[in-house]
Amino acid sequence: MKKIGITTESAADLSEELIKKYNIGIVNFKANLEKIKDIPGNIFNKMRIAEEKGIESVVKTSQPSIAQYLDLFKKKLEEFEEIVHISVSLKVSGAYNSAMQAKKFLGKQSEKIHILDSEKASGAQAFLALKAAEDIEKGLDLKEIIDNFNKRIKETFIIFMYDDPKWLKAGGRFPKIAQVGLQKMKDFNIGIVMREKGGVIKPMAIKKNVKNLADPLFDEFKKFTKDTKKKISIIISHADNIKEANDLKQKLETLENTKVLYISLMDIVLGAHAGPNTLVLNFIYE
Question: Is 218 in the same domain as 121?
Answer without folding.
Answer: no
